[in-house]
Predict the structure.
Amino acid sequence: MLCKIVGIPLQVGASQLGCEMGPSAIRVAGLVDALRELDHEVVDMGNVASPDPGEKRHPNCAVRALHEVSGWIRSAAAAAFDASESGMPNFLGGDHAIAVGTVSGMAKRAAVQGRPFFVLWLDAHTDFHTLETTASGNLHGTPVAYHTGQPGFEGYYPDLEVPVDPANLCMMGIRSVDPAERAAISRTAATVHDMRAIDEHGFVSLLRSFLGRVEREKGLLHVSFDVDFLDAAIGPAVGTNVPGGATFREAHLVMEMLHESGLVSSLDLVELNPFLDERGRTAQLLVDLTASLMGRTVLDRPTRSY
């Protein structure tokens, strides 16, 4: 398979700086070599250029860096659409605000191909705030609200060309939801599996059900993977740690199932903050998880010494 690497070093969507180093850290941890060892062709397309910061304000005075984030969204959407013309794009963040652009770009690609578009959101958070409801002003909490066509972004974010049907959205690993987000999600058909559901039913049955639907409908599947999907004990390099995340084996199981499905067409790796890492182990884990998604099996896994 042709794998394309696209860095999107956006960090101003989060409150803690450092995510702009994420793409470099993942590259240094050996992503390209790991993919080539699995016999994939790899093309590193470099990083998306930083837009002009400019100035754009919102009546919600908590909102920060609106114009800059909007510029990144536009660039990320164009990069996603272009990179997805052939091969499988791997988008390296940057904070999760990059997904405002990557998801909308991939949704446009699905529309051009005449296929339904699905999103698997692996995250501790639902990121379902609008510009009006966010209290923190951190725009990495807005991607899902935007790309599912929720109101309140008009005139601030780029116009949404192809909304994502909330019924085609599956969230897993959720364990931190603000009241405004909970109310908004309850009015949609989105599937939300919090860690209580995963404790009760396990990843296998819940993920298999979603993947079965993607397969039946011949859909295009985008996976958006936030470091805080993981438990902090194995993935400390994130500014939004929430206790009780996926374990090492659970995370690899999810990626192995995704590989076996043969359905994944694009991937986000977001919220890696190398400034918070421990000897690069979170970056290395992201590389290993991506390798599992791309075909590495348990028997092929290398021994790591830190």
Residues 260 and 295 are 8 Å apart (CA to CA). The chain has a mean pLDDT of 95. The chain has nine helices and eight strands. Strands lie at 2-8, 41-47, 88-93, 117-122, 169-174, 191-194, 220-226, 264-270.
